[in-house]
Write a structure and sequence with these properties.
Blueprint: H1 8-11, E1 27-28, H2 31-38, E2 44-47, H3 49-62, E3 66-70, H4 77-85, E4 90-93, H5 96-105, E5 110-113, H6 120-129, E6 134-137, H7 140-149, E7 157-161, E8 169-171, H8 181-193, E9 197-201, E10 206-208, H9 212-228, E11 234-236, H10 253-263, H11 266-269, E12 274-277, H12 281-284, E13 288-298, E14 301-304, H13 313-317, E15 324-327, E16 337-343, E17 352-360, E18 368-371, E19 392-396, H14 411-417
Parallel strand pairs: 1-19, 2-19, 3-4, 3-12, 4-5, 6-7, 7-9, 9-11, 11-12, 14-16
Antiparallel strand pairs: 2-13, 8-10, 13-14, 13-18, 15-18, 16-17
Bound molecules: pyridoxal-5'-phosphate (PLP).
């Protein structure tokens, strides 16, 4: 067991914790035990490798094709190692750093460069040094760029990215990347004319709640494949598979898989075509919770030691309500819940998360809040703005901390919080 900190100066050292990249030090039955043992001054990620392993195994078993983990969602090596232990060998990478991370760490892993706009040097290094053979694109100039930087290699698969309509996704990714049906047809023909293999990919948007969004995207993919007449070796249905948050309970993965199976274009059922997906959030969200400390209570507002410039930007920009509960070292908070809003630690008044979040009504300074579903797009988006950088990990062995309907504010409590 790590020792409690002896004094304030020591509290700034990573004693008893692990810095990112070095694994999680300290293992506890759950976040409450960690809080009682350490009483941490800084935010702590409670990492659950058993949850990550099981989630990876379930996804791979359920999906009728190759499952690429989207590294951007959480590139922290201890998380990627746990997914790897759960059977993930294929990685959607968007930068040379991500390519290097997986290729240097796992000799038998495969990386696919799925960012449609790449630096020339990154293409070269990925191809020649790391053996990457799949590159995404959505513009003729990017096709020319990849050809130039790989010496017109004929062992490259060009993954043409199709733009899909904004559906029920919390984050729309279609505005920035992808081209329409006609653009995809032109690109596929150009790929074929240049002697390379072709693939087709899309992304329906992150945290997409409706399986029918994949059916819509696959109908467009069918138009592209029929219209071009170009055989593809890969159809990649992207990421976007959702995780549950408070008030957002998506259908089970099977419903997404069924929608994809039913809408699969004939060309994608051909023996030479592989089906891929690139989940991020759905694989890692439940793999960690985050424990923050309450530094001050001002009526219905709690000032905490992490915020939108740290791990919690999704609380503000996506309006996602993560599951939360109050932990009190050496005591028990009230079982009665009341609505609260949160302020992050920086001096920016934009650093606020309105919620409302239902927390023990007697929450007070020195209490901790465990925030569940904190494995996806949290630590990846951290900054050290104002000198606050959450970077401490411990391992916990309890089940994932998931949202429940009881965490939802009722109409009356939400009104009281306004
Ligand atoms: C190309 C690509 N693939 C996969 C993902 C992962 O998406 P998600 O975390 O929603 O599954 C993203 C996210 O931005 C992406 O841009």
């Amino acid at each position: 067991m790590p020792m409690p900190f002896a004094n304030t100066a020591d509290q700034l050292l990573p004693t008893g914790y692990a810095a990112p990249g070095s694994g999680a030090a300290g293992r506890y039955p759950d976040a409450a035990a960690m809080v009682s043992a350490i009483r941490p001054d800084q935010p702590i990620y409670c990492f659950r490798p058993h949850v990550l392993r099981a989630t990876a195994r379930n996804f791979i078993d359920a999906f009728p094709g190759r499952v690429l983990y989207a590294v951007k969602c959480n590139a922290e090596p201890i998380f990627v190692d746990a997914l790897r232990d759960g059977g993930v060998c294929d990685f959607d990478t968007a930068s040379l750093t991500e390519v290097a991370l997986v290729r240097d760490r796992y000799a038998d892993s495969r990386a696919y460069f799925m960012h449609p706009v790449k630096q020339r040097g990154a293409i070269r290094e990925a191809y020649y040094r790391y053996g990457v053979r799949h590159f995404a694109l959505d513009h003729p100039d990017e096709l020319a760029k990849i050809r130039q930087e790989t010496g017109d290699a004929d062992d490259v698969t060009m993954m043409v990215r199709l733009a899909t309509p904004r559906g029920a996704a919390v984050y729309d990714l279609g505005g920035k990347f992808g081209t329409d049906v006609a653009g995809c047809i032109d690109l596929l023909r150009a790929v074929q004319a240049g002697g390379q293999k072709a693939g087709l990919c899309f992304h329906v948007g992150s945290q997409c709640l409706t399986p029918s969004s994949w059916a819509t995207a696959l109908r467009l993919a069918d138009e592209v494949l029929r219209g071009s007449g170009v055989p593809v070796s890969v159809l990649d249905v992207g990421g976007g598979f959702p995780a549950p948050y408070v008030g957002l309970y998506p259908p089970p993965l099977d419903a997404y898989v069924a929608a994809i199976r039913d809408a699969l274009p004939d060309a994608a059922r051909a023996p030479g075509c592989e089906l891929w997906c690139e989940p991020g959030r759905a694989l890692v969200a439940a793999g960690a919770s985050l424990v923050v400390r309450v530094e001050l209570r001002r009526a219905g507002f709690l000032y905490i030691n992490d915020g939108i410039y740290g791990s919690l930007s999704d609380l503000k920009y996506a309006g996602l309500r993560f599951p939360m509960r109050v932990l009190r070292a050496g005591g028990r908070p009230s079982g009665r819940l009341a609505p609260f809003s949160l302020f992050g630690p920086t001096c920016d008044s934009a650093d606020v998360m309105e919620g409302p979040y239902m927390l023990a009504e007697d929450v007070r300074e020195g209490d901790y809040i465990e925030i569940g579903q904190a494995g996806a797009y949290t630590l990846e988006l951290r900054t050290d703005f104002n000198g606050f950088l959450p970077d401490r990990f411990v391992e916990v062995t309890d089940p994932a901390f998931l949202p429940m309907p009881a965490m939802e504010p009722t109409e009356a409590t939400a009104r009281a919080a306004e």
